[in-house]
């Protein structure tokens, strides 16, 4: 079968999900969770991690019933050709919209921090053009790339640890439950949306080698690492900035690095931005790949390369259109509602449907 | 197809690098120091020091000092920019000075642009000048060092000596914005002999200057906040009975002092703050010269402890008079006694906090003589 040279190992799968989860949200996460959870922001992140673990379990259970089909294939098996295709296209739109949203947030931060004079469309175009080179490859090549770029994650950590050692005041996170548990949960809702990315399991599951238990372990490990990393970074920002200050800083992680100087490097934030860009690109690649796989399936007889042009163009138009803050907020809203529906509600319904009508994929290929 | 791609890649390489956002050092004039002073009618006088890069025919670096009066910090910079060829850039600012009048009125309005601009440097050192801040920069150079670098070096060496707190634009931001927390900024003065001296620290409450510490008091403050990294020197009068005589004094090096702080709320609703611990010291000067036997040493330890505790007490009184909560007592209460904190009116209640310094001194070394 064609799948044979396209499979990935469980380790690669772990990094694939990890890199998809770590993305554009990490810079503003501490500010976002702090705005509702106050000093308990890092607890919100842990709660969000638990919630995403729960969702992962559902997604995994769904995939387990169709062990050799991607989401686009098993939707047809569940609902027949017509309805299945429509639902599949909904997932394609979700993936492409998410890619566009990533570009919107990315270009916004980049133009505020380093390239104020560069037109936004240029930044967006550069990202799309470079990432498309990766996205037209098969899953195995993409996974290899994502594993290779994971070396950059320890750099995130090292910089955060360094900043924390220089300047911290633990008093800032107290009183812990100042905001009340309700707001802490609300904060975790925000954190959850910067941690999505695990829904790629819907696409990648049949291509991962090994048994279903191993696959669950891999994705859970990825989620655990992301939760710990995010929670630590949030904690760092919360002990470095006073609560009043963090309220006025949209990207605390960058701001924190801006004030430190090594002997050789004056502005660590600029170096960090370049490293972080890679993380954003990997997330973008994963999502656009998911979208292109769907388009390929429905319109190009399974060849996702052919979808590259128009997926890229749609993405570009969507991203360029959202230039103003109101539109960015609108996109953010659409994304939260969209991902809530597409990765929580719909998969649960699908799971229920599949049990109810006893639809199952063939157990082995 | 491949060739077209290669061609496109080549062309884009020519076109893409740094088209819009290049800012080359060649075209920039780097501001090394900025000073703000009060001007009449609520305006601000900004003074900047620009460093001229040494180029071919000019071997020695030189600097220029310019002043202008305007409404806000940013506007004055734009006014200066229009006077000066090439573009002013703030990413190398080493020293940021506030004049006394500005500091008494509030410093945040002038700092805002530094926090907002992604290119501004957040790690430039900050200081208050007793008098006009621009006067310091108009010294232009002290010895062989250009003025902005000189100010930076003075501040740095005093930080290392454990006399001045480490402050930069970013470090005071957290403290500026948060209630229940205040801060100290190094205080400079232009001396008669055309030099810059670090005379102590300015106490701030909110964003306003409310008092000042001399050098000794600021060492004691740093001791209480455990900010002395290596050691700090202290001259204490331990034998007042000798009168104004060198023999009344002893000079010690405090070796990385670390004290414990306890904040207690008494049943009657008062706040007690206790500083306790032992400061290990090395005698560097003792004109009376008599430390031979251990009983005598014990006695000196005792006398030192008493004298030091008294000095700390006086320093804390001064701080309370200035209403400057630089020890973050308020923030501590907000964090660990939130219910109590809500009932407090810190503007008034801070003055009622009772401080109890209980500091012991133990001499470990006496140099190479007894």
From TrEMBL, chain A:
It comes from the Bacteria. It is a multi-pass membrane protein. The keyword Electron transport does not apply. InterPro entries: Spore_GerAB. The chain crosses the membrane at residues 12-29, 41-62, 82-106, 118-136, 142-162, 220-241, 270-295, 307-323, 335-356. Keywords: Germination, Membrane, Transmembrane, Transmembrane helix, Transport. It is found in: Membrane. Belongs to the amino acid-polyamine-organocation (APC) superfamily. Spore germination protein (SGP) (TC 2.A.3.9) family. PANTHER family: SPORE GERMINATION PROTEIN A2. This is Spore germination protein (Amino acid permease). It comes from Laceyella sediminis. The lineage of its organism: Bacteria, Bacillati, Bacillota, Bacilli, Bacillales.
UniProtKB/TrEMBL annotation, chain B:
Signal peptide: none annotated. Pfam families: Spore_GerAC, Spore_GerAC_N. It is found in: Membrane. InterPro entries: GerAC_N (IPR057336), Spore_GerAC-like (IPR008844), Spore_GerAC-like_C (IPR046953), Spore_GerAC_C_sf (IPR038501). This is Ger(X)C family germination protein. Residues 21-189 form the Spore germination protein N-terminal domain. It comes from Laceyella sediminis. Keywords: Germination, Lipoprotein, Membrane, Palmitate, Signal. Its main location: membrane. It is a lipid-anchor. Belongs to the GerABKC lipoprotein family. Residues 200-367 form the Spore germination GerAC-like C-terminal domain.
């Amino acid at each position: 079968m064609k799948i044979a040279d396209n499979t990935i190992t469980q380790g690669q799968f772990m990094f694939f999900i990890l890199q998809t989860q770590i993305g554009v949200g990490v810079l503003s996460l501490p500010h976002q969770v702090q705005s509702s959870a106050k000093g308990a922001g890092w607890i919100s992140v842990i709660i969000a991690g638990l919630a995403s673990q729960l969702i992962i379990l559902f997604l995994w259970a769904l995939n387990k019933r169709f062990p050799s089909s991607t989401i686009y294939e098993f939707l047809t098996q569940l609902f027949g050709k017509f309805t299945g295709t429509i639902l599949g296209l909904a997932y394609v739109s979700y993936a492409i919209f998410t890619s566009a949203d990533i570009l919107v947030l990315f270009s916004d931060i980049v133009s505020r921090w380093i390239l104020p004079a560069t037109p936004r469309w240029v930044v967006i175009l550069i990202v799309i053009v470079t990432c498309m080179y990766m996205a037209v490859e098969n899953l195995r090549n993409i996974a290899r790339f994502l594993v290779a770029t994971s070396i950059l994650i320890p750099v995130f950590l090292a910089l955060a640890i360094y900043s924390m050692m220089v300047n911290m005041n633990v008093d800032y996170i107290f009183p812990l439950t100042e905001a009340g548990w309700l707001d802490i949960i609300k904060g975790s809702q925000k954190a959850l949306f910067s941690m999505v990315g695990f829904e790629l399991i819907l696409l990648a599951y049949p291509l991962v080698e090994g048994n279903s238990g191993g696959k669950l372990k891999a994705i859970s490990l990825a989620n655990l690492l992301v939760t710990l990393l995010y929670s630590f970074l949030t904690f760092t920002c919360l002990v470095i900035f006073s609560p009043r200050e963090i309220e006025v800083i949209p990207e605390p992680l960058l701001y924190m690095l801006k004030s430190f100087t090594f002997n050789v490097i004056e502005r660590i934030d600029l170096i960090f931005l370049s490293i972080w860009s890679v993380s954003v690109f990997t997330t973008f690649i994963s999502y656009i790949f998911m979208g292109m796989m769907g388009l390929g399936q429905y319109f190009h007889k399974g060849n996702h390369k052919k979808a590259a042009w128009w997926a890229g163009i749609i993405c570009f138009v969507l991203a360029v259109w959202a230039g103003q803050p109101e539109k960015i907020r609108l996109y953010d809203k659409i994304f939260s509602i969209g991902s809530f529906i597409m990765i929580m509600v719909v998969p649960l319904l699908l799971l229920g449907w599949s049990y109810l009508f006893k639809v199952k994929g063939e157990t082995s290929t | 197809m491949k060739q077209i791609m290669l061609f496109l890649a080549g062309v884009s390489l020519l076109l893409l690098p740094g088209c819009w956002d290049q800012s080359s050092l060649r075209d920039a004039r780097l501001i090394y120091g900025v000073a703000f002073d009060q001007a009449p009618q609520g305006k601000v006088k900004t003074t900047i020091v620009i460093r001229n890069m040494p180029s071919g025919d000019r071997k020695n670096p030189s600097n220029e000092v310019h002043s202008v009066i305007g409404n806000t910090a940013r506007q004055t910079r734009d006014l200066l920019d229009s006077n000066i060829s090439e573009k002013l850039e703030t990413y190398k600012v080493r020293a940021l000075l506030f004049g006394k009048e500005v500091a008494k009125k509030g410093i945040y309005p002038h700092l805002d642009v530094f926090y907002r601009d992604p290119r501004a440097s957040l790690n430039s050192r900050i200081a208050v000048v007793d008098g006009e801040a621009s006067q310091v920069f108009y010294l232009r150079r002290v010895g062989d060092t250009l003025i902005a670098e000189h100010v930076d070096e003075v501040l740095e060496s005093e930080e290392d000596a454990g006399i001045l707190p480490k402050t930069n634009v970013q470090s005071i931001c957290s403290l500026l914005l948060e209630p229940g927390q205040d801060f100290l900024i190094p205080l400079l003065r232009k001396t008669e002999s055309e030099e810059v001296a670090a005379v102590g620290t300015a106490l701030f409450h909110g964003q306003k200057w409310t008092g000042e510490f001399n050098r000794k008091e600021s060492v004691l403050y740093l001791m209480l906040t455990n900010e002395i990294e290596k050691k700090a020197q202290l001259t204490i009068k331990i034998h007042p009975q000798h009168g104004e005589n060198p023999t009344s004094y002893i000079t010690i090096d405090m070796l990385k002092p670390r004290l414990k702080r306890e904040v207690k709320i008494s049943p009657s609703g008062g706040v007690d703050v206790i500083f306790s611990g032992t400061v290990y010291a090395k005698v560097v000067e003792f004109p009376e010269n008599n430390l031979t036997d251990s009983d005598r040493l014990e006695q000196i330890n005792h006398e030192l402890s008493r004298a030091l505790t008294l000095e700390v007490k006086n320093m804390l009184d001064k701080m309370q008079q200035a209403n400057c909560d630089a020890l973050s007592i308020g923030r501590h209460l907000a964090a660990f006694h939130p219910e109590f904190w809500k009932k407090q009116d810190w503007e008034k209640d801070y003055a009622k906090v009772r401080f109890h310094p209980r500091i012991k001194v133990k001499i470990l070394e006496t140099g190479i003589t007894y």
